Structures are given as C-alpha cells and as structure tokens.
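Loading example: each entry is read as four labelled lines plus one structure line.
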Amino acid sequence: MADPLYRKIAEDLQRKIESGELEPGQRLPNEEDFRNEYAAARNTVREAIRWLTQRGLVETRPGQGTFVIRRLEPIITTLSADPETGMAGGEGQAAFTEIRRQRERKRELREKARQEREASGEKPSEAETLEIPEGEPRAMPPTVELSFAPGYVAERLRINEGDDVVSRHQQFYIGKTPWSLQTTWYPLALADGGATALTRPRDIEEGAVEYLRKTIGLTQCGYRVRILVRPPNKTEADFFKLPDDGRVQVLSLIRTGYTSTPEFTRGENSPYPFRVTFTVLPADRNQFVFNSGDYPEEIAAPARDSEIASGQQA
Amino acid sequence: MADPLYRKIAEDLQRKIESGELEPGQRLPNEEDFRNEYAAARNTVREAIRWLTQRGLVETRPGQGTFVIRRLEPIITTLSADPETGMAGGEGQAAFTEIRRQRERKRELREKARQEREASGEKPSEAETLEIPEGEPRAMPPTVELSFAPGYVAERLRINEGDDVVSRHQQFYIGKTPWSLQTTWYPLALADGGATALTRPRDIEEGAVEYLRKTIGLTQCGYRVRILVRPPNKTEADFFKLPDDGRVQVLSLIRTGYTSTPEFTRGENSPYPFRVTFTVLPADRNQFVFNSGDYPEEIAAPARDSEIASGQQA
DNA sequence: GCAAATTTGTTCGTATGTATT
DNA sequence: CAATACATACGAACAAATTTG
C-alpha cells in the first residue's frame, strides 16, 4: 500500500460505487463528513473526489453535493446503409425511426428486468440504472451558409481552398437533450447547376442524395466514413452541456460521398467526392453499429463496459 | 472576466500552445517560474496545469517538468471487409500490410510538407509535429483459455451463461508501442466438432473464418460491429501505458460473426452467431474507416481535429 | 555509483467566494 | 436572508522521481 491517501479514499469509494453500495444518482456524504471518516484534510478528500470525477464515477454540483453518476442509455446509430433506402444511419428521418424503436425496446427490457429482479430479490442490474433521455428525437431547421472552402473541406472535396461552397448546418435533439451537431459541405457549383434547394434553409425531405439524383442526375456510387474521438471544442461543450472538466470527449464522423456520374468528376477518374459531412456526438452516450452481409435484425442489449473490461485479461 | 485565476493562466498557456509559440515536446517553465510570472500561489499554477492536462494539451513528468503534448499520428483501421479477402481490418495479417502502407505514405507526406515549409519559411504545420511510432506492426502469440461463457459473451453467442467456450487472446504492438488488445470467443463445440486449432496457442495462418470453413464447413454469412468509447480498465491502462489521470479513453470494438450453415444454427433461424471478438484500442491514436460501394483507394490525410472543430459553428 | 539539486506530487491548514436550497 | 456545500486561492512542509555533477 504505497498508494497516497487520496487514492486509498478514492479506491474505497470506487469499490462502494461498483459494488452498488452507493447507487447511481445517490448523494455522497459531504466533504466535512469524509474529513472525519478518513481523518484527512479537506483538500485530500477533494483530491479523491476529483480522481473519481475524472473517471466518470461521480459528479459534483456546487451548493448541492457529490453524486454517483447516472450513466445514460447509449443511443445506437447504424452506419451501414439500409439496403432498402440506401440511406445510412444519422441521415434523414430514417435515423429517428430507428431511435424511437430502440428506446421503446429498451424501456420494455428495463421493465422486464425490474420485474424479474423484484421477484428474485436481487439488487438492481446495471441496465436498470441507465438513464433513458425523455422526449422524441427531432431536428432543428437547417442553417445554410455560402462561403469559401476551408482547407480541410477542400481537401476532401478535391477542390481548391477558397472555392465557393455551401454548408448546411443542423442541430439534433432527443427531447430537450442535445444529441448531435452536423455540417455538410457541397461545391456551390451543384446548386448553380440546378440543385437550388441546397441553398435554402429548409429540410430536403427525400434526402439530399435522392434530391441530387432527381434534379441534376448526380448519383452516389459509394461513400467513406471516418470515425475518430477527440476533446470537444467550446461550441460543442456548450451545446452538449458537457462537464467543464473535459472528461467527456466527442465522437466525430466524417462522411464523404462519391459519384461516378461523368459531369461531376471534373474529367478525372471517378469516383469523385461531391459532398462531405461532419457529425459530432458526445462519446459517453452514443455507440455505432455497422453490418455486413446477412445479420440478425435484433441488436444485442447495450454493451456493458465493466463486464467486458474484466474479460479483457490475458 | 469572471474567470478564476487558474483559468486565466490556463487559457493564456492554451493560446501559446495553439499558436505554436510553445511547440509540441517543449518544456514549460517550472511551477516556481509561473508563480512569479502570474503572481499566483503554487497550487493555483498547478490547477492551471491540471486543466491543460485534462484537455490533453500538456503532460507533467515528476522530476522533469511540464511538456507540451506530442500528439501521435493516428493509425487508421478499415472496418469494412476487403472485397477480395473478405477479411475486415484488424483481422489477421491484412491489417499489418495496411498499416505499413499508411506509415510509409505519411512519412513521405511529412517530408514533403517539411520541405515546402522550409522553402516558404513558415512555421511547422500540425501534420509535421505528429509523432509516428517507430517499428513494425506485430502480433504476440495468442493465448488460449477454455472456460465458461460469461453473461456478456453468452448473450452475443446466443448460448447459455456457463456453457463451454474457448477464448483466444492476443496483444498487438507497433514496434515497442502497444497497439491493441483482442479476445475472441467461440463455443467449444466448434473445436470439439473438428476445428481443433481453435484451442492451440498458435496463429491460424489463413484466418479463423477460412479455417472454420475448411475444416468443419462453417461459412460466415455476415457480421456486425459495435463501436463504443469508454474509460480503460486497469489492465488496459497498464498495457497501453495510458496516463494515470484517466484522460485517454479506449475505443472498444465488438464484432459478432454470423453463419447460416444449418449444422451451426441450433435449429433456429439463421443467421446465428458463431464467434464474438472484443478489440480495445487507445482512443487518442486510432481512427476507423469504413467504405460502401465504389470509393477511391486513397484515404485523405489524417483528420485535423482543431480545424474541423472550428468549422463546427452554426 | 552516489550525493546534491531540481521538479513535480502529496498533504496539511486556513480564508473567502459562489451556487443552491 | 441564512444555512449548506462545493470552488478558488493562499501558504507551507515534506515526499518521490529524475537529472546533474
């Protein structure tokens, strides 16, 4: 036990949290109580709480106290294209339908788990303590901006930095909970060439890909998605109401759409990019799925981190 | 300016880091220097440094000092199946070939950027400061364990908790840098049915999927991948040498393989799961890509977080 | 290889500020 | 407005890790 005092305190509390002795949402004793319980200075107690905060086990609220984190039920987005619509998850209204179905199913599972548990007299399972956000998924109206392509957009659209582009930005919510931020960039030439709805701040009901096919005959021949994790910027931290301590990162999706329609490949070899979408979601409550070949409809229950973790040993 | 003092200090340093005034790898003044520079107590300076640490901008090393973080060149794993081999990224030796190619290309790009920069006399670009780990990708020999299915495995293999399973665990490195941990679980029945290599602690050269097809006629009809982000457990933090402050999370991949070969669907409707793989990688140096349809061979340069971030505004 | 110097890490005590009930 | 609880800030001392001489 060469562990410093604050770590001993933290690990003691961690044990209590993970064993369920302290339940999600429950208030911990205040700093003065801990000072007595562990015979430590207040600063040392605060170090311990900070260590737990950093690992996402507790959160502190000024004037209220320290609380065991209530984890959020993850929202699962399917990234592979739906064979029927050709639309991938996160695109258009299809995503909303999927989320509604997920939430309904999870509420059922949770209720079932609760009943079984009460019958057997055990303590609540983890699945039961996950918080399901209230409300329906919805999209704010898009905002549209005509501007010049920044480097990271130009590179992906294979145009020159500073070329005319149109960007469509949209915010998504689940009830009152912010869910995702999304910005899609198109060369302005597409709008000039007849796809004028790209520059209107209104939803494109049939989806932009279908709209481009219909109006200017541009068909998407494929797409590529890049997935990465990074710290949120200030805009994102504000929008998602992420804690100030930088503990929650964001998942960033970069989706590039390609076409092989000759008019849009600039004489180069196709496939050529015609749009790029940046989507950002908080990493603590979103998961992705993608499928290949034949697979069952049903998706397994939410991955339980702690258990998987323990199976990770050599 | 209602900002507390430690935040003012932190934001001042953040500005210096992001402007390039303080370069990656550079040592910052020590705490005593900052104490004088900002007329603050040592603890207040330490709060500022802690704030920067949490956001991944600096790291502290006892006895040495505080340093601007050198970010790692991300390793990109393609998750969609290779149309030729049917193997998806992270599976078998194919992943290594891809990584070698990536690294070669990035070294070239970096060298090119450096020459252009020196010609123009500007300051180093971000791409140039990213650290490329030394050495070749390699796999440690697998370890094999015969055990009973834990709940989270049983659920995904649609067997009963406690049923006999074989788990194959493997560690991957790039040079001396730990890259990923992976555990794959199969029902032991597959090995009993003739696929005996599953229980041997040796690489299956042709890949397990091909091996199962060859030996017992089990074909994979599809698969599903789940992607999530979570804090590392102790095993993972040790293996990846992640900082003790919990700042770096891990990407967790859960890949379930399905078969429709009648002997292996237990009389139920196919597709039926026959294996599940858990892969864990540090989230600060790994990215995923997947493709659909026709897409260009070439992958765009690594996503530059900070720039994308600024494009995220409404 | 060891001792000294340097630098961050841990712990204590105390006072005051700010958010919430 | 008062009470409660966490947040910020100061000062001080000793411990542990690392580098330097």
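Chain A touches chain B through 79 residues (CB under 8 Å).
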